[in-house]
Amino acid sequence: FKNILIYAMKMRRRKFIVESCNRLFLSLYRNYISRSYEYFLSSNTSEIITVLNVYINKIFQTLQDILQVLTETIVSLFLMVFLFFIDWKAPLFIAAILILTTLFLRKTVYENSMITGKKSMSTYIQMTKIVQESVMGVKDLKLLTAENSIYRQYEEKGFENLRYEDLRLKYESLPPHIIELVVAFSILLYLLF
């Protein structure tokens, strides 16, 4: 039950972070695109693209990494203390089980995660191109009043990227829980035999 709870918390936390990141992207993008043409004459286009695509991602990825490290550290400390009090040979047995489980997951889950990650990167690149083309062609965008159309394209790619990121997270977050479950089961078997 603990693993199911931790997995659900991780999914909810990641979904919150990705949705918050996407809302911030859309808000900043709407803010930039709705400015007057004169603003873009004196602005640095690469700075706009960097703010929209690089800095925001780094902030939210750092937040995700910090939360992940805290969770893993707490769980690992409890497991190490538990193993120490049970039997000093138990860690060797658990290490062997851990290596075998990791090799199995590397062959199965890792491949799916890589494929999904490539799809996510592709949509992210498309989002970057939309921003770059709209910022570079802001005069045409303003003249044709195509701001909403471009915004919808960006929003669609954002939601597509959100789906791929969500799926990728599911692939990436399963192994630790599976490993922990297999190790816990192995400890029980070790204690019984």
Chain-wise SSE layout:
Layout: H1 2-33, H2 37-42, H3 45-86, H4 90-136, H5 138-143, H6 147-192
Helix pairs in contact: 1-3, 1-6, 3-4, 4-6
List key phrases describing it.
about 190 residues; elongated; mainly alpha; single chain
Would you count the extended β strands for me?
0
Number of separate helices: 6
| Backbone CA Rg | 23 Å
What is the overall silhouette?
elongated
Structural class: mainly alpha
First-to-last CA distance: 24 Å
Residue ranges: pLDDT <50 for 5 or more in a row? none
* Biggest sheet descriptor: none
Helix fraction bin: over 70%
SSE order: HHHHHH
Tell me the fraction of residues in β-strands, as a range: under 5%
The average pLDDT score comes to 79
Structure in a nutshell:
This protein is an all-alpha fold.
Describe the structure.
This protein is an all-alpha fold. 93% of the residues lie in helices and 0% in strands. The chain is built from 6 helices and no strands. It has helices at residues 2-33, 37-42, 45-86, 90-136, 138-143, 147-192. α1 (2-33) runs antiparallel to α6 (147-192), α3 runs antiparallel to α4 (90-136) and α4 packs antiparallel against α6. The longest helix is centred in the middle third of the chain and has 47 residues, at 90-136. The chain is elongated and about 80 Å long. 12% of the residues are buried.
